Structures are given as C-alpha cells and as structure tokens.
Amino acid sequence: MLELRPGCEYCDVNLPPESLDAVICSFECTFCRDCAEKHLQGKCPNCGGELVRRPIRPAIKLEKFPASTVRVLREG
C-alpha cells in the first residue's frame, strides 16, 4: 500500500492526500511540486530516482486505508 506522507520532505509544506502538488519517487519519498522543480530538478535527493505526481487515493478508501501522519524531513 502506498504511504501517503503528510508533508514535503524538503520544506515541510502540508500535502494532504488529495493534493495535486505532491510528487514521489519509487521509494515513496515525498516532495511538493515547487521544491521538486526549483530545488531538486525532478530527481529525488535520497535515491536519485524520478519524481512523479503522487496518485490520489479516493476519499472512500481513505477511511479504511488512511494517509500517514508521520512527517519525514530530509536532513541538511
């Protein structure tokens, strides 16, 4: 199950499950579109992988499979 992290690992801006501004890599590292484009040039700083738009989990499925509440921040 895809972990829907609640914020950008770079700037800590909120990224709710329905956000169209969340991008992820194949390891589920999560960033906002602004940081991904302006600071990371579309590549995950953790693994070097491509950052793509995170899919939206339908609201009805969030009841059974909620988004994560654990915030992850990149050091440095």
Task: Summarize the structure in words.
This protein is of the alpha+beta class and 76 residues long. It has one domain (1-76): Herpes Virus-1, CATH 3.30.40. Helix content is 16%, strand content 11%. The protein contains two helices and three strands, in the order ββαβα. The protein has helices at residues 33-38, 59-64, and strands at 22-24, 30-32, 52-53. It has a three-stranded antiparallel sheet with strand order 2-1-3.
The percent range for strand residues is 5-15%
For this structure, what is the CATH class? Alpha Beta
- What is the name of the CATH topology? Herpes Virus-1
In order across it, which strands form the biggest sheet?
2-1-3
Structural category: alpha+beta
The CATH architecture: 2-Layer Sandwich
- Averaged pLDDT, please? 95
The major beta sheet can be summarized as:
3 strands, antiparallel
Number of domains: 1
Using the alpha-carbon principal axes, give the shape.
globular
- CA-based gyration radius: 12 Å
Number of strands: 3
Number of helices: 2
What are the segments in which pLDDT stays under 50 over at least 5 consecutive residues? none
Query: End-to-end distance, in Å?
Result: 29 Å
Helix share bin: 10-25%
